[in-house]
């Protein structure tokens, strides 16, 4: 693996989840540019530094021995990567504080380093939460690869922090420097809400929830075909998002015992609020996790899944395949994995490599609903 060489530290970093012969690095030129600029401008020892959306901990690990670092992001896999990479490089795992994006980091911060996230609603919510947590003279610097840097990111920095100046591009990366100015206390437009007719639900969606402003078309294709007559089955909604699949399943299976998991903290926050609104105090386990990695073997009867096809800006079926493997391990013999997927992804063939029976439950021109039996 390439070593991440910075003016602050040289680090051996891993991505999460790990995969053999991973061609991708846990850092990029935008991380290098941010740290090189910070070193050039100077960083006082023990300065309070906030790092936002630090994909696999590259920035926080580099600064851990030089400042009081708080990292905040919406990825539980990112948190796992941070912990593993601190330990891997001989750094204390207690040396960097972590705040999930569903909470507000407490300042005052002298330096804020931001990796511009794919979802600009997440960036907007994070900038809103910075209000009142910047020290006098604070430096706010955002970085991104140019191909992933929309003009709207600079507009948001200008709106919520202050005037913005862009750097020249270096190795196809660019920095945005925001000079903090007094701004009125902002009102967040998040969470957003939308209604469903079947089942009759109003769903809360925090800033980084997938398809925040309306039901995604894959879930819409899946909902009419969710399993019924499950009795007291143990059911997991894997990659639950705002929880709609798990909630809909619970409504039609009043004795089923549900677990809802997602690697997004804001998804878990949304799912928990939506569950309470729809089902009150009915017992449920809703938590952030690396899929079903921590689920005991042979502990589930049914797994529901609308698998993702990307991690950050990287598109592929690695995460989906991993979810299928996790589901197989967690299911009892005879247990079932129910999924929805784009026709062209060929999940039917992939599932046949793991499960003894795979059948098509429903289909439309774009999606298929599949049931795989262990």
Automatic annotation (TrEMBL):
UniProt domain Methyltransferase small: residue ranges: 201-371
Entry keyword annotation includes S-adenosyl-L-methionine: yes
Keywords assigned by UniProt, alphabetized: Cytoplasm, Methyltransferase, rRNA processing, S-adenosyl-L-methionine, Transferase
EC number: 2.1.1.174
UniProt keyword Transferase present: yes
Annotated function: Specifically methylates the guanine in position 1835 (m2G1835) of 23S rRNA.
Protein's UniProt name: Ribosomal RNA large subunit methyltransferase G
Organism this protein belongs to: Zestomonas carbonaria
Gene expressing this chain: rlmG
